[in-house]
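Justification of computing resources. Each target in the renewal requires a structure prediction run like the one illustrated here; the chain below, 355 residues long, is used simply to show the kind of job we budget for.
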Amino acid sequence: MPRQRLRDLGITIGEFPTGPYNAITDVAGVLVGHTTLIYDEPRVARTGVTVITPRNGDVFTDQCFGAYHAFNGNGEMTGVHWLEESGLIGAPIAITNTHQVGIVRDALVEYETKKYADSQWLLPIVAETYDGWLNDINAFHLTKEHLFAALDNAQSGPVAEGNVGGGTGMICHWFKGGIGTASRIAETPSGAYTIGALVQANYGTRRHLRVKGVPVGQIIDTDKVSSPRQGQKADGSIIVVIATDAPLLPHQCKRLAQRATVGLARVGGTGYNGSGDIFLAFATGNHVSLANTGPVVVQMLPNDQMDKCFDATAEAVEEAILNALCAAETMTGFQGRVVHALPLEELQRIMLNYD
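Resulting structure tokens:
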């Protein structure tokens, strides 16, 4: 069976409607770009970089409120100290592998400071998960040109998922993992708002994988689909980026980021000691221009209207993870290791038996 998204398999998660693309790009102005590196010589590459760009690429001059949450902190996300202090995001966001955060971060600075010639200071947000099982991570394959290409190719519309960008070499619940995305529309008394999630899923053990509460990982165990990770220590990581067009302030963005934990838990993520589970949320409903010389006028969604946004976030994160699993293909990589894809026909059969 060709790889398909979860809903294409007839499996629907949650109660909220999706946006037209069921992707983080359903939030107006949010663009996603990937650079994917897959080759065997001179050393094995199964890696890449993914970028998420708010404001159609002009977030440097038209900043947006944001916040982060570390569910378990055995990972890296640069720029979060200033994010926590200021509550503002002023550059594209990137996700890559553990050993190349530095070059991606530096390349983002170079790209933005060349784009905005008057800029003299930038602390961009770059996050990572570890792809060293399938990628020869110490070969340092990524260059700044790969980051530039991802930014130049970033676009709205459907988002490539699975073995792409920063997710190229990732493993999720001992199946092939990677990039996934989903969105929801939350109806509140103040209006309808879009909430989108994008994940780089590289966490979890087989036995914990659940789809709509069904213990899929226990049914498709390692006797049926083997994994090079079986018998290894339970660890891994997931990065979640949440975007919304709701008029949220930084403390509300943090509350949204925290709810990514609910979506992760529904699929089977626990947040182990060795896992870097770090979540970022940003809201485009307010505008903070660098040109402002006086007080900035902002709006705030009433806190008692946030519940729908919380529910929508949990659903979007849950489905984004499952879309990553459904889209990812079996991959052979570093030292000949093979990581198998989640078998979609078997998943369909299991879910039909539980309906």
